[in-house]
Design brief:
Largest sheet: 9 strands, mixed
Number of helices: 12
Strand order of the largest sheet: 6-5-1-9-10-11-12-13-14
Shape: globular
Radius of gyration: 19 Å
Structural class: alpha/beta
């Protein structure tokens, strides 16, 4: 699908839809994990009561950041100088109000109505031990209360690309919300995209994801090597790439230290990764790759340029702790000879 010229006085390059999760980062000793009965380096999905009790006993010096995969991608687009929006649900509570203010300060348009009654805002409590390992405890809460009512055609119609994270495909109402968003995007001759998010996510929803891609509900698909192989149930990445080329208008595949590839109209383009002196934390690498790739596509740039910009953004975020860029990505891109 070709991307149209701007139709509005206030156009958007990329609108993302996903879980609105506040990341709560805190440094702890290994003894804290033992006391709390937590398995080190594992992501634990927890319920509301456990979330409240763990938050209460965590050390006072916490760093809170508005997060979630799709929100991170939107923040990356904004850092690149793009116009980004995010759709995701928080509750009208302390964490939800923090999330709203924090995300808006990144330059992202965030207007989703707060949940006034029911579950609390989602949060991911990230416990970092002295060896740099992360033990995550995630409570999804209000994230799962996103519904089709939160999708507005006026906003979707302003975005060159609407991008959804696969993690949000669990709750039925959220599924319907994205299908509605895709309908509005295509009605306004705009493109849609999905990231597969996680191999386990693919295992749960393989048939549904394939249907989204083959039916052209999603024009573009993002995956890493393991996710793509899981999608097509093969250990041969070349076979998976061939299948993706048949199913998707565009498939973008991240390959870690080997760089990234994109497939469009049967053409496979690869670029190497940008060198990083020391990899500090790979969290958010795929999210920020999507930021660069999506913005380049939204601005009509060549696939090779989109891959380079995506890889550059990923290289910045893995050079430090946290899933958000520390540098101004627009300036970082210019310093590396990439124009947006």
């Amino acid at each position: 699908m070709s991307l149209p010229a701007d139709k509005s006085e206030d156009p958007l390059d990329v609108l993302t839809i996903g879980n609105a999760i506040t990341d709560v980062l805190v440094r702890v000793e290994d003894e804290f994990l033992v006391t709390q009965g937590l398995s080190k380096s594992i992501m634990h999905l927890i319920e509301a009561e456990r979330a409240e009790s763990l938050y209460a006993v965590m050390p006072e010096h916490k760093t809170q950041i508005s997060g979630g995969s799709a929100a991170n991608s939107a923040a990356g687009v904004a850092s690149l100088g793009g116009r980004a929006a995010f759709v995701g649900k928080v509750a009208d509570d302390k964490i939800g109000r923090f999330y709203t203010i924090d995300l808006r300060t990144t330059g992202v348009e965030y207007e989703t109505g707060m949940l006034e009654h029911g579950t609390a805002s989602g949060r991911s409590m990230v416990l970092i031990t002295p060896d740099g390992e992360r033990t995550m405890n995630t409570y999804l809460g209000a994230c799962h209360d996103l519904t089709p009512k939160d999708i507005r055609e006026e906003q979707i119609g302003r975005a060159a690309i609407t991008f959804m994270e696969g993690y949000l495909w669990d709750p039925p109402e959220a599924k319907r919300a994205f299908v509605k968003a895709a309908h509005f995007a295509h009605k306004n001759e705009r493109a849609t995209a999905i990231t597969l998010s996680d191999p386990f996510c693919v295992d749960r929803f393989r048939d549904e994801f394939l249907d989204l891609i083959r039916s052209k509900t999603c024009d573009y698909v993002f995956a890493n090597v393991e996710e793509l192989k899981s999608l097509y149930q093969t250990e041969d990445i070349h076979h998976a790439v061939q299948r993706a080329a048949q199913d998707a208008e565009v498939a973008a595949v991240t390959m870690g230290a080997a760089g990234a590839m994109a497939i469009r109209d049967g053409e496979v383009i690869t670029v190497p990764a940008f060198k990083v002196e020391k990899v500090a934390d790979v969290t958010g690498a795929g999210d920020l790759f999507a930021s660069g790739f999506l913005l380049a596509l939204a601005r009509g740039q060549h696939m090779h340029e989109a891959l380079e910009l995506g890889c550059l953004c990923a290289s910045e975020v893995i050079s430090h702790l946290g899933a958000r860029p520390e540098k101004n990505l627009k300036q970082f891109a210019a310093d590396n000879g990439l124009l947006i």
